[in-house]
Amino acid sequence: MVKKLNLISFTRGFSLIEVVIALLIISITFLGFSQLLEQNLRSQEIKKDYLDQHYLKTSVLTIYVANPKIDNLQIEDLLSLDKISERQLSRYNSLIEVEIEFSANSNTHTIKILK
Is the model's pTM score more than 0.85? Predict the structure, then answer.
């Protein structure tokens, strides 16, 4: 009395749970990839803003070093600034410490120089 084993061939395809899990894995992968792309775009924008601000500060500093007696209106016209002002902070013998405050594109920056 030996029983024969009946082999059933499964050719129906994937079960519903397998499809749902595969779609879940694919959606998580796409979500992670889109988050990385968004973060990269934000990072590039922040980097560009920082470089623009640094370029503007360097330009103002270079102009003041080249010609300390330059008029503020000339600097406004040259660099397309909204407003520029300078304020004397301290004085030691012939050196004057000046704080230069300027604004461009609704961002205000300050630098300190010695004249």
Answer: no
